[in-house]
């Protein structure tokens, strides 16, 4: 029997070694964390400290801890890895667990009932292991430690030998007393884990034998680099063909979602998570608005503390994959509720955009609204919120970099396929930009002459690493640039087509602008969604602040899809062939100057048909102001705030269409409000209403 046991033990060790080698082979994207750990192992024997490894579910914390264990063992450093989920939840059992893992003689300990002696024995046993070098104590799933966290910090770790490296790995960053105390704070090194970037995911897939670029990009688009999701989808892919159905509906992804939602057992908090999944990004005000009830500060703080919620520049958002899954589930399970939240978002940002137009300010909400009112293609391009990029004008200090970008683009130009997945239907489509088309755009970049015309014309786009991966030529329209626009390539045909009065409107002084001519939008890789999104955001920021924009992209389905998604219209009767002398290219324009902004918004949101939402909005406003407001000149007439707005414009002589445009409503909704106003005021037409409710009695 002893020989059998030894053989079984030897077999288990071989399996463990094989698994270790496989895990090591497929571990990618954690070089920085690994190097930090190795450096910590090489420090002095009394330099321990605490490493806080944290990240959302499925991000690879346990996987990284296993690599730390292998690295420690190679250097003859003992590594004690404990799973906090198996602790019963009291100091005695924790110490027993540690001592058993250390193979401490338990007989003498088990007979003792003194908790203090047990803790002292546990601390001493750990200290003894440092006599011959370093030791690592790693606690995985630390969020499960619960109420014992205070004891661990104040009673156990406070007395732990200083040479022991402690790793606390969990979903959440250490907070509270861990950071408020200067003593603890200086001992802690934060190690947040994020999703894999494209290059790391590419390497991971290649190691599994998945080498076709189209397959890699498709998997990347579906998984966003989330390690667990990537691993599960790889196993599905290796078992057969890449699934064609929408990823959010697949069993693979629901397995990942269930991992995340273990953090949210409370039904009220689940409601907040569901609402947040409909939104591109959120804050407390927006959530309260779309849910039609106050979201308390306590609820909001709890929501933003979940591991799958991240802070972005202007709010918070859920992990992209969780948004996909919950959004798909809501559309299927509660379609009316889903679209009601979506409509409320439209109204929220529509109001913000109108306010910024009145104040002549460039509010960030102007760009945000396009995620909600744009079509599915635009929503797909804008979906990923967590990208980091910056733009800067061309300048002598970055000129050489810009030239290197153009040279690199020319050397590496290739056909680019943009994979588009409709998030509602799950159907996929492809947009192709050939290398020839790409170079035709590149060959018309004129940095020097545009810089001399106006230094702000050329914009460079950098990624989070500071590398230039996009370039734009956007020319302000004014009397200083008009001659160039009338004679230069791409722009000449349009500006020579203008009537004298149209041209005169654009001839503003050189230090101002009447609008923009968008000449070139170029990115290093047109199939890279993050690059496309960065250039698109820069484009949007210009078209929604300028009032008047003309664009002249290549005659390609991608260009047409983007321009029409943004609400630009084709200019009739004028084209150009300047890209290659053969292909006829159209111009696109948008005019939101003055009151035309309301027409643009009305056109973009016509799809949503908002009458029901306006009633919801009216009820909300009525509740806030005690249900109704009396009109001063007619105390017996009670109108809601929305009805007052309609009545004010009605008695001022606005048509139904003009009221709809001004208030961002559909004409059907305006007619419904007018009918209610006539009924409440006991009148039959506008003239009678004007006699009963003079304009001065209605709030502006």
TrEMBL record:
<keyword id="KW-0805">Transcription regulation</keyword>
<protein>
    <submittedName>
        <fullName>Helix-turn-helix transcriptional regulator</fullName>
    </submittedName>
</protein>
<dbReference type="Pfam" id="PF00196">
    <property type="entry name" value="GerE"/>
</dbReference>
<dbReference type="InterPro" id="IPR041664">
    <property type="entry name" value="AAA_16"/>
</dbReference>
<dbReference type="InterPro" id="IPR000792">
    <property type="entry name" value="Tscrpt_reg_LuxR_C"/>
</dbReference>
<dbReference type="InterPro" id="IPR036388">
    <property type="entry name" value="WH-like_DNA-bd_sf"/>
</dbReference>
<dbReference type="GO" id="GO:0003677">
    <property type="term" value="F:DNA binding"/>
</dbReference>
<dbReference type="GO" id="GO:0006355">
    <property type="term" value="P:regulation of DNA-templated transcription"/>
</dbReference>
<dbReference type="InterPro" id="IPR016032">
    <property type="entry name" value="Sig_transdc_resp-reg_C-effctor"/>
</dbReference>
<keyword id="KW-0238">DNA-binding</keyword>
<dbReference type="Pfam" id="PF13191">
    <property type="entry name" value="AAA_16"/>
</dbReference>
<keyword id="KW-0804">Transcription</keyword>
<dbReference type="InterPro" id="IPR027417">
    <property type="entry name" value="P-loop_NTPase"/>
</dbReference>
<feature type="domain" description="HTH luxR-type">
    <location>
        <begin position="632"/>
        <end position="697"/>
    </location>
</feature>
